[in-house]
Every structure is written in C-alpha cells, then in structure tokens.
C-alpha cells in the first residue's frame, strides 16, 4: 500500500516511492529507493521536500504512535495523481534566453547525475529506472518549452569525459525541440524525449577500453561499438513493466541511414520510422559539435553546413529541414563575421528570420581589438548590419567565447 506522510515521520527501513514537489528540488537523483542510510534520512528531512509517498509493501509502515496525518490510495490512483500534478505544474510560456540559462544549467546538472547512475546500473546488469527517465524528460521538456536554445546549447559544452552521459541529455533535448517543430503532441514529445535519453544505453555494455579510447578505433574495435544499438535494445526489452515502443525503435535504429548504408539492419527510406530518423539527426549533431577525447567539436553553424551536405544520403530531408528550423542556420554559440567587419557570437534565435539571430558583438577586425560586448538583434527593423559568414573559432582562439553567449563560466556541472 502507498501512503503519503510528512518527512518528519520517516524512519530508516521505509521505502520511498515518490517525493512530492518538483524533481529539481529533490536532494536525490533517484525517484524511489529504500531509506537505509541515516545520512539520506537527515538530508531528506533537511531539504525543501515536506511530504513523500512510501510503499509499505516494500518497506516499514508508519508507526502507530506517530499519529501522522496520512492519506492512503491505491497505486493506480497515486500514479494518476502524480501524473496530473506534474502536468499541472508544467510551464509553457516562452522566457528570455538569459533567464532560462541559469535554470537550464541546473537541469543539465541534475540530468547528468541521473543518466550517469542509469548507465552505471545498466553496466551492472540492473534494469532501467523508467520512473527516473520520465522525471528527467519532464524537466528537459519543460526547459526546452520555455526556451529551446538554452538547455540545448549548454548541453553542448560537455567535457570529453562527460560525453557519454551528457550526450544522452543533449539528444533528449534535441529530440524534444525537433518534435515540437514537427508538430508532435504531448505524448509523442514525451516518447521522443525518452527515446533520446536512452538511445545509447547499449554503450553501457561496451568494453571501457574501447568506449573511452582517446584515439581512432581499429576496425575490430569499431565492429564492437557497432553492436551497441542491439545491446541497448536487449536491455530495454528486459526492463520490468516494459519500455515505450518509440524508445525501443530509436535505440535500435538511430544509426540507420536513408540510403540504406547504416546499421544494424541496413534499413532505407520509409523502412525507417520518423522517430528513428529524428534520432539519427540529433545524435549526429551533438556528436560532431561536442569535444571528444580524440577531437574538438565543430562550431554549431559549421556542423549544420556539413550535415546539409550529407542530408540526401544520411538524413531524411524533411526531418533535417525541420531540425535546422528548430536550431537556426546559425545556432546559439556560433561565431560569425558581420558585414561591418565585427566578430560576434550568436546568443539567441530571432522569430523574424533564421538568417538574422540576436548576436553579441565583441571584436573588431578593423581595429584588431576587443570591443565592449553589445547585444544586437540583426532582425530589428533599424539594424543595418547582417551576417557575412561563419568564422572558425579555432582560428581566433577566443578563450571566453562560451561565457560570452551563455553568461556562465564554462560547463556549470
């Protein structure tokens, strides 16, 4: 039986089913666990969480003498009420980029912790925590809904050592943003997000010396890595209670290509589902824009340009076009040269034009010196400047380029 109690009535040996309130305010990454560590009890009681649901079938019941005010419901009723509460708390209105960046950084940090634990448990042969995955996707979806550019751009700033985990967070966010552009409904967006979050779960079954190799893989090592979609698919099939069919599909088929040259099945064209086609685009974009042990990530706008060259054989053209619309031709973080000769970094997309984002100007090629950073909306009616072309960050070596567009010092997780 499930009971809702105040945290002051918790004792060791109780099984936490769910913590009430926003997942972002919870002191733990887990959504349910046995309360068997006194430190966890102290941490929970000192947090902002005031009430929790306990499962008396899996842990201790409330002591009769506690006289706690409790509410007992069937498990089905609890799940329904939690789902309803989460839906009611969703924030859907757009917020400015600068406002969402700080919040998105917290989401990234929390999501990274959760995904890291999911992969570690999968490596030990444990089942995927689907409730945790849903919570992560809810928070990411909320952030993307408020301002798509914030979390997507921050997730790109992963360190090489964080790649496997933050890649899952980034692909989840990209799937949600792309799904919104394609007009998917709420249930479909949730499925797309979960698929993005677990698409690379099979990498938990790969040998660490291959997965973390700092150089180019040998043919034999690459053959091993190519088994990760099927390995992840098997893991998801073994999850108690089952996993969303979309997640199963994307996990298995996100490396398929529309020309049939992908793996593991060599599917082509309409043999590949819409979600798997989405997964292919999102997976590649985050991979090529991220720093890896063996190479630095490409500039976002350069990545879009190169992906456009591959689109006919690798990606579904309609899905790729929608992807570009969701991010912009010059995604946040892109380094650009303006007609005026000034260098700027893209900080936000404009509703008026994909070619005229909001940029932060900070360098003059004429005076060969830094300028006081200044925001310029290139789509504004009276703006006389425009983008002349992309610039290669490696050629300029601006050490603070990420801080310029984000306002945050490095990857804040």
From TrEMBL:
Report the Gene3D superfamilies cross-referenced here: Hypothetical protein af1432
Q: Which UniProt keywords apply?
A: Hydrolase
HD-GYP domain location: 140-339
List the Gene Ontology MF annotations in alphabetical order: phosphoric diester hydrolase activity
Under InterPro entries, the record lists: DUF3391, HD/PDEase_dom, HD_GYP_dom
Q: Please give the CDD domains that the UniProt record associates with this protein.
A: HDc
Identify the stretch annotated as signal peptide in this record: none
Coiled coil ranges (UniProt) are none
PANTHER family in the cross-refs: CYCLIC DI-GMP PHOSPHODIESTERASE PA4108 (PTHR43155:SF2), CYCLIC DI-GMP PHOSPHODIESTERASE PA4108-RELATED (PTHR43155)
What is the protein named?
Metal dependent phosphohydrolase
Species this chain originates from: Thioalkalivibrio sulfidiphilus (strain HL-EbGR7)
> What does the record give as the organism's lineage?
Bacteria, Pseudomonadati, Pseudomonadota, Gammaproteobacteria, Chromatiales
